[in-house]
Design brief:
Layout: E1 5-7, H1 9-38, H2 47-72, E2 73-75, E3 92-96, E4 102-108, E5 119-121, H3 125-130, E6 138-143, E7 146-156
Parallel strand pairs: 1-2, 4-5
Antiparallel strand pairs: 3-4, 3-7, 6-7
GO biological process, one term: regulation of DNA-templated transcription elongation
GO molecular function: DNA binding; RNA polymerase binding; translation elongation factor activity
InterPro entries: GreA/GreB_C_sf, Tscrpt_elong_fac_GreA/B, Tscrpt_elong_fac_GreA/B_C, Tscrpt_elong_fac_GreA/B_fam, Tscrpt_elong_fac_GreA/B_N, Tscrpt_elong_fac_GreA/B_N_sf, Tscrpt_elong_fac_GreB
Length: 158
């Protein structure tokens, strides 16, 4: 990885909770089901066995990914931000476009981004354009729909 995987404490907790649930609960139950299904005889037509093995591979792949992301994570608490006048990681920003349409966005780690909830990843084009912006700054960003200009209306931190 060439850049740090910034993440909020809540985002890290969510990754860890998913890892723990898969590793401690779902995976052992699945292994038990597979062992039971294997004991039933012909495995080529045994749906429990075939589906169980497929699901086990999916869980193991997800556990590996979660493990790598947690190992590379750099937990940053936005509440500890000293310069609250500029947009940095964890900031909640109110922006307005040329048509005065306002949006409220929170810059979070890429693993916890959810555009529907207004959480945009730290490395998203709009987040990169907003980094370091202060109240009243104009920032131009190239989005899939074309180039847009946004004005920073408000910057807050938790």
């Amino acid at each position: 990885m060439d850049r740090p995987n910034y993440i909020t404490p809540a985002g890290y907790s969510a990754l860890k909770a998913e890892y723990d649930a898969l590793f401690a609960t779902e995976r052992p139950q699945l292994v038990e089901t597979i062992a039971w299904a294997a004991g039933n005889g012909d495995r080529s037509e045994n749906g429990d066995y075939i589906y169980g093995r497929k699901r086990l591979r999916e869980i193991d792949r997800r556990l590996g990914w979660l493990s790598k992301r947690m190992k590379a994570a750099k937990v940053v608490d936005p509440a500890a931000q000293e310069d609250r006048s500029r947009v940095f990681f964890g900031a909640t920003v109110t922006i307005a476009d040329e048509d005065d349409n306002q949006r409220v966005l929170t810059l979070v780690g890429d693993d916890e981004a959810d555009a529907g909830k207004g959480l945009i990843g730290w490395n998203a084009p709009l987040a990169r354009a907003l980094r370091g912006a202060a109240l009243g700054d104009l920032r131009r960003v190239t989005l899939p729909g074309g180039e847009r200009e946004y004005e920073v209306i408000a910057v807050t931190y938790p």
